[in-house]
Design a protein that fits this description.
single chain; six-stranded mixed beta sheet; four-stranded antiparallel beta sheet; 0% helix; globular
Length: 118
């Protein structure tokens, strides 16, 4: 599988911001849906942002208006801008590219930890 290198996670106070980056070792983002996920302890992994090949973003209600997904296909990189962070955003964050059939093209790896203190 394609390696994904995540960066930008860390510890931030509630109300703060972080920008996550996800760089792929190969060009898997161009022509595919890209998505950010998170997994909190004891919970299932959930999608927090998705961008289709047409560039249309989709967000679940808990992060709508606070998170923004973007992509730079030329640099094989996707980003997640997270503003007004809340303690419930604390989780390990992952990114990936998805085929039309929803198959992940990249290695899930260890993700990047985001911790929001109250």
């Amino acid at each position: 599988q394609v390696q994904l290198v995540l960066s930008g996670g860390g510890l931030v106070q509630a109300g703060g911001s972080l920008r996550l980056s996800c760089e792929a070792s190969e060009n898997i983002f161009s022509g595919n849906t890209v998505a950010w996920y998170r997994q909190a302890p004891g919970q299932q992994r959930e999608a927090v942002a998705m961008m289709t090949t047409s560039g249309t973003p989709h967000y679940p209600d808990p992060v709508k208006g606070r998170f923004t997904i973007s992509r730079d296909n030329a640099k094989n990189t996707v980003f997640l801008q997270m503003n007004n962070l809340k303690p419930e955003d604390t989780a390990v964050y992952y990114c990936n590219a998805l085929t039309y059939y929803g198959v992940a093209l990249g290695s899930w790896g260890q993700g990047t930890q985001v911790t929001v203190s109250s």
